[in-house]
Design a protein that fits this description.
The complex is a heterodimer. By secondary structure, chain A is of the alpha/beta class. Chain A has helices at about 15-25, 65-75, 85-95, 150-160, 220-230, and strands spanning about 1-5, 30-35, 45, 80-85, 100-105, 110-120, 135-140, 145-150, 165-170, 185-190, 195-200. In chain A, about 20% of the residues lie in helices and about 25% in strands. In chain A, helix 2 links the parallel strand 3 and strand 4. Chain A starts with a strand and ends with a helix. By secondary structure, chain B is of the alpha+beta class. Helices cover about 35% and strands about 25% of the residues of chain B. In chain B, the strands form six sheets. In chain B, strands 8-10-7-11-9-12-13 form a seven-stranded mixed β-sheet. Chain B has a seven-stranded mixed β-sheet with strand order 25-27-22-28-26-29-30. The longest helix of chain B has 21 residues, at about 145-165. Classes of the chains: A alpha/beta, B alpha+beta. The interface between A and B is medium-sized, with 32 and 36 residues.
């Protein structure tokens, strides 16, 4: 199984995703330059975190027009897995791969810390290796991570089990205090209706090596590997 | 030599114009002698920048020469963009600290952001990939609205820049004291990693090689920034806001990637940041290092606006620009790499055999200096040094006789008051705004004694920290500077690292005042002594003088940026307690030594400042050789696997350090029983809050006790067993005298420590103003 990690100008978590896949998962990975239109036959596309084009206009708003995004959208349309993390989540929303939007944190400030997440749906291709209702500890680092959507969309996401991760406290309760950015319904990550595009603000690729803290993100990558192995 | 004539429209050279450029009569005469004629306006501008304190170190160079700079670990000492040391396994670390004080005083957001940008470029131009940023910050009291605005703006500026470039900000320190009210200190440090073979220097070489300007276009911003940094702040400083540059971290990220690709490509021979004094200093310094001539045609420099004069192009401090000397014939390869990163490259000059520094505008020569004399002919000064009588008097104060406050009858009141001092309290409010985990190397991030970063491709890690207690240096400059080196060394040692080398940022007042020059010369002597004892050579740094305003100079603040090496990642040690029933041991003496008949330890302490508003007394004596012994004892204990936690005992003394061990980790507060009854014949405040140097609190399992004691004694360090970790307890219990205990509930200590800064900053109008302003600047 091969991961393709897209590098936009200003991406800065592409390296972390690459190292997580290669060093910790022992899987194959390659960087995909934003100006190319060739996915090089990868199985999973990763849209990494960072500040594509400086996020000077609106996070992700310019990157979605990069040549490679046409191919990424086509890949998703074919049911190919897309893992969109942080700035990648923002780009995926801008590109219409996922509903809703990410806006400035409720507290207005950039927030960098390890948060707790509850696994709300362990039945996706990204979460199959997690236990039901597992509580994960994963870092966030963003200034525009407040998930917003209209009421209809929110209801649809909840009804379809598309809310995959929710901010919670250490005990797994989705309290307001545990919500670091004011995201609606404490949403930290969602999947597309077809279940093959995951967008999340927390950084699972930073939580794969126990030397650096809890390695709770590792099972997310292992879920993807397990899917292909089947 | 070419014929150089004044450019039409240039102002006439008058004594007033010369003075405005910061040159005194003697310096102007030197310039005329060098040229053998009167300078043109362009030449005056060039010399004004290069001979500014910021670029020339004219008041500090003689002193800096006394510092130890060599050692087997040093691959590149002072004089380059950054120092470089070997860390084994073929890897090297480049690191440097630099100030951006004056820009931050007038425009905190951009001042701090561009400070971060500049130091990043200094590191990646050595060929190293930046892996961490640190910041050493000093502000006035948070009671002041202006200070809250500066603090909020600086923190946001640092965060927005580093976060966007994708370099984690992992450590530093923040101190609040009235002495920095109008002149905050903003020192940024960057650490990068490379293979030893990838080291590149900024030395122009190869006659006929092209000189290429790379990165952002040149605008009119920041003209004379270097000169601005070399004068006192005044009411007029606000009017100099246009001299503050504007940062673009997105371009910086592209420039970082493009520069590293260029360096690895083999198409270039040298690269240097166009930092202070922009194109002028980068080109002149590269030529001087390579002992070659250069010629630059300003009409070829890509500019942002039309009609810029040679003077403006040469002195612009527009950010995110690099100067590259490429190999002749490789110009297109260089351009191709930059194009890939959406950046521009323009050939603007050439390395020449003729020993001359020449600037042309098309075919017209607008400035020309013989050889590299524009760099080397700068005057050097060693002005009068004399200690201020006022400070002598302050130091002689017997602070042990200061009466206790009525509130101090409740020892818990005092402890909470200490922990809520903004200087001691948790700085999470600030570092929560910094991405500290990007690049996935951060083993210990902000909040520890030092940050620890793993070195990929190796079983090693590095530890980094900045330190300086300006109050100590103010009261006793030589001793205080030694203490800064030793505290930084202790801090990296507490994580398991052997201190390896330092970079320093010397923040002082106007050196032409004898009392300030005294502090500078004494502090540099102290740094040298401590670094020799610690075997940590000085690999570079920065001098920032003129840190004063009409209300006076800041505390002399020689910030030390320490690099330590952990030989085995398994030795990484944390500062907070975790294991139940561990024995708590103090390495070092519990009480301060007696100096001049009085017990030291409270002199210059946080206790005196916070509880009594007093800055006086003899600061705790620092003995670098003893400090080295303590560190060696600690490291031996760690390497043998005995140590479960280690925490430096410094600001706020023993009680503060114990409280931090118990509750600094909010996820897992851990209680303890401490017994200090053996010292009950000494005033309690001296036992709890004295700041005697050379002390480290460690926890070890019972089974290690004998061995740890033997190791400590072997290094001439007294080990004192002072308590036990009680992980089920929710209190820090300190027996202060037989039958008398201070019971400190962890939740109250944590509320004081973790709540202090948010209580001041969250919802403050100044903090909100910064968020609004920044929203406008970044869109």
């Amino acid at each position: 199984m091969k991961f393709g990690i897209v590098t936009f100008p200003g991406s800065n978590c592409d390296y972390d995703a690459y190292r997580a896949v290669v060093d910790e998962l022992g899987a194959e990975a390659t960087y995909l330059w934003h100006k190319t239109e060739d996915l090089e036959g990868v199985d999973v596309v990763v849209l990494p975190g960072g500040f594509s084009y400086g996020d000077y206009l609106r996070a992700g708003a310019i990157a979605r027009f990069s040549p490679i995004m046409r191919e990424v959208v086509a890949h998703a349309g074919r049911g190919g897995p897309v893992l969109a993390i942080c700035n990648g989540f923002q780009i995926a929303c801008e590109a219409g791969l996922l509903p809703g939007a990410l806006v400035r944190n409720a507290g207005m400030r950039f927030v960098s810390e390890a948060v707790y997440l509850s696994v709300e749906n362990e039945g996706t291709m990204f979460t199959s290796q997690y236990e039901k209702d597992a509580v994960l500890r994963i870092p966030i680092a963003h200034g525009e991570g407040r998930y917003v959507a209209d009421a209809t969309t929110l209801a649809r996401l909840e009804d379809n089990g598309q809310v995959v991760f929710r901010y919670c406290d250490a005990g797994g309760s989705a309290t307001g205090e545990a919500n670091p950015n004011g995201s609606m319904r404490g949403i930290a990550g969602i999947v597309s209706a077809e279940g093959n595009v995951l967008g999340m603000m927390p950084h699972p690729e930073r939580a794969v090596d126990s030397l650096l803290g809890p390695a709770d993100g590792k099972l997310l990558f292992e879920s993807l590997l397990a899917r292909v192995a089947v | 030599m070419s014929k150089v004539a004044p450019r039409p429209g240039d102002p006439r050279i008058t004594p007033a114009l010369v003075a405005e450029h910061g040159l005194n009569e003697d310096e102007f005469r030197r310039l005329v002698d060098m040229l053998g004629r009167e300078p043109t306006f362009t030449e005056l501008g060039i010399i004004s920048a290069l001979w500014s304190e910021h670029c020339s170190y004219k008041h500090s160079r003689a002193l800096l020469k006394t510092l130890p700079t060599e050692g087997p670990q040093v691959l590149q000492g002072p004089g380059e963009n950054a120092g470089v040391v070997s860390v084994g396994d073929g890897l090297a670390v480049a690191f440097k600290i630099e100030s951006h004080n004056h820009p931050s005083a007038v425009e905190p957001y951009q001042g701090a952001a561009t400070g971060a940008g500049g130091i990043l470029r200094d590191v990646f131009t050595m060929g190293a990939r930046p892996i961490a940023m640190l910041n050493s910050l000093r502000f006035g009291s948070l009671d002041s609205a202006r200070v809250r605005y500066l603090f909020a703006g600086v923190v946001k500026g640092i965060g927005d820049y580093g976060n966007c470039v994708g370099i984690p900000t992992v450590a530093g320190e923040i101190v609040f004291d009235d002495a920095y009210e109008t002149n905050p200190l903003v020192n940024a440090m960057c650490v990068g990693v490379m293979k030893e073979s990838e080291l590149i220097t900024a030395k122009a070489e190869g006659i006929g090689n092209p000189i290429i300007a790379v990165g952002a276009r040149t605008g009119r911003d920041g003209i004379h920034g270097a000169s601005f940094a070399s004068e006192d702040l005044s009411e007029a400083s606000d009017a100099k806001r246009p001299r503050v540059q504007v940062g673009d971290p997105f371009t910086e990220k592209l420039l970082l990637e493009a520069s590293l690709e260029l360096i690895r490509s083999g198409h270039i021979v040298a690269i240097q940041d166009m930092g202070a004094a922009g194109l002028t200093s980068s080109s002149a310094e590269m030529a001087e290092r390579g002992e070659v001539g250069v010629t630059i045609d300003v009409s070829k420099v890509p500019v942002r606006e039309q009609g810029m004069t040679p003077y403006e192009i040469l002195l612009s401090e527009s950010q995110e620009r690099m100067l590259v000397v490429a190999k002749r014939g490789h110009e297109d390869d260089v351009a191709a790499i930059l194009t890939r990163w959406d950046l521009t490259a323009a050939v603007i000059g050439e390395v020449i055999a003729e020993p001359v520094y020449r600037v042309t505008e098309g075919a017209t020569v607008v400035a020309e200096f013989p050889g590299s004399r524009l760099v080397t002919d700068c005057p050097r000064y060693s002005p009068e040094a004399r200690e201020s009588d006022e400070i002598v008097r302050l130091r002689a104060t017997d602070v042990t006789t200061i009466p206790e406050l009525p509130e101090e009858k409740d020892p818990l009141w005092t402890l909470e008051r200490m922990l809520s001092s903004p200087t001691i309290a948790s700085k999470a409010w600030a570092y929560r705004q910094y991405d500290s985990t990007v690049r996935t190397n951060t083993v210990i991030g902000p909040g520890g004694d030092a940050a620890v970063l793993r070195l990929r491709g190796s079983n090693r890690a590095i530890a980094v920290k900045t330190d300086c207690n300006g109050r100590y240096v103010y009261l006793s400059p030589r001793n205080g500077a030694q203490a800064a080196v030793c505290e930084a060394a202790r801090n990296v040692a507490c994580t398991g690292a052997r201190p390896l080398a330092i970079t320093n940022c010397l923040n002082f007042g106007n050196p032409r005042r004898p009392e300030n020059y005294f502090q500078l010369s004494e502090a540099i002597a102290g740094i040298g002594e401590a670094c020799r004892a610690m075997d940590t050579p000085v690999t570079g740094g920065n001098v920032s003088l003129y840190n004063e305003s009409p209300s006076g100079a800041v505390y002399p603040t020689p910030v030390i940026g320490m690099l330590g090496l952990i030989d085995d990642i398994a030795h990484v040690t944390r500062s907070t307690w975790s294991m139940d029933d561990d024995v708590i041991i103090l390495l070092g003496e519990l009480l301060g030594e007696v100096v001049g008949g009085a017990r030291s330890g409270l002199g210059g302490s946080e206790y005196l400042s916070r509880i009594h508003g007093v800055v006086a007394g003899e600061p705790p004596p620092c003995h670098p050789v003893l400090e080295r012994d303590v560190i060696n004892a600690l490291l031996e204990c760690i390497r043998e696997g005995h140590v479960h936690s280690a925490h430096d005992c410094s600001d706020g003394g023993l009680a503060v350090a114990l409280a931090e061990c118990a509750m600094a980790n909010q996820d897992r507060p851990v209680g303890a029983e401490i017994n200090l009854a053996a010292w009950s014949d000494v005033a309690l405040r001296e036992v709890l809050y004295n700041e005697a140097q050379g002390r480290i609190i460690i926890t070890v399992p019972e089974s290690s006790l004998g061995r740890v004691a033997a190791i400590a004694v072997g290094h001439r360090v007294p080990p004192m067993m002072i308590g036990r970790v009680r992980s089920a307890s929710r209190d820090l219990v300190i027996e202060t005298a037989p039958g008398r205990t201070l019971v400190a509930p962890l939740d109250r200590l944590a509320a004081a420590y973790h709540g202090a800064i948010p209580a001041i900053m969250d919802g403050s109008a100044e903090s909100a103003a910064v968020l609004e302003q920044a929203a406008v600047t970044t869109v």
